[in-house]
Amino acid sequence: LLLMNSTEQFNLIVGHINHNLRPESDNDKSFVEDLSGDLNIPYYSKSLDPNSRNKSTSVEEWGRTNRYSFLKKIAKQTNSKWIMTAHHGNDQAETVLMNLARQSGVSGLRGIAKQDGNLLRPFLAFTQKEINDFSKRTGCLYKEDSTNSDITIPRNFIRHRVVKPWEDEVTGLISGLQGSVRHFNEWKTALDFLIIKSLFPNVKKSDKRFDIPMDMMITLPKMAKIRLVHLLMDDSGSELWSKHQLNMLNQFINKDNTGNVHELHNGWRLLHNRDVLIGEKISADIQKNAVELYPNVPLNYNEYRYELILNGRYDPSENTNTETINWSILKNRKLEIRTWKKGDSFQPLGMDGHQKISDFLIN
């Protein structure tokens, strides 16, 4: 920042996000604001409310999402060409090790991207020690996040108990891991190239739908199946899939039962339809609020039509779109239609406990 500012060849802007997770976060904000003022650099800041975080979202994910959203907003407002963050080589090493533990697949081994669109991370080539040594030589002041020493936080444990001792023993550890990250990226690029050139021609594809022949799908190795689906959904890989999400996708692909549906976390829906695996982009304006269903009153909800018909007799149907129920159990209760929510469960017949609907549809 100091060097770029001194050349007077760049129009720089500083963006700072106060997560309000630590008592000293206000002091950090003042430090960045004062430094920007001393360097005569325009300064923008945003203060977050931790209470606004959805409890199903981790603190790390909540903070990351809000940070990049704010930085992209400021870049657009100021017509800035690039967004630069200070991630360094040690951050890269920690990220790769964490993704290995999470079993997040080949995409996780790529680590932090040096460039992602207009987002640049110019410090990835340098270790934390090299940056700290530079700061000391030039007399640059910097602030250390006090929570970085808290090893109950998984990343900090890896930083202090794994990477630091390892780096002390192995010269060039960080640069070696950086080289491995480059190799992982090259392998992933090669895999994507072969899938696009060899498999895409056999797939019927449009912007919001794709049809994969199952006779081709069943011949592919596990990761080729998963990556083919990723690429057809235009998944750049910037959002890593968890071990659970990858396993659920793989189980669904291999469970070839016509009519089975699997809704993914990224806004896509998969459907087994005879000899084809269909992928559909779910409409962004899909209705999510619950709507009450009344007897003999047809209801159109999103892309489907529902109708509760009372016929006074037990008449089971083999039609998979028809369900026969005992109305005497439900007649004094409210029956509603709504979209699936994370954690929804039910009690299958013959079972004492409950099972998640998402797991049932896969199994």
TrEMBL record:
Compartment list: Cytoplasm
One Gene Ontology cellular component annotation held by this UniProt entry: cytoplasm
Chief location of this protein within or outside the cell: cytoplasm
Enzyme class: ligase
Classification via Pfam families: ATP_bind_3
GO terms classed as biological process: tRNA processing
Keywords recorded for this protein, A-Z: ATP-binding, Cytoplasm, Ligase, Nucleotide-binding, tRNA processing
Catalytic activity, EC: 6.3.4.19
NCBIfam families recorded: lysidine_TilS_C (TIGR02433), lysidine_TilS_N (TIGR02432)
PANTHER family: TRNA(ILE)-LYSIDINE SYNTHASE-RELATED
Protein name: tRNA(Ile)-lysidine synthetase
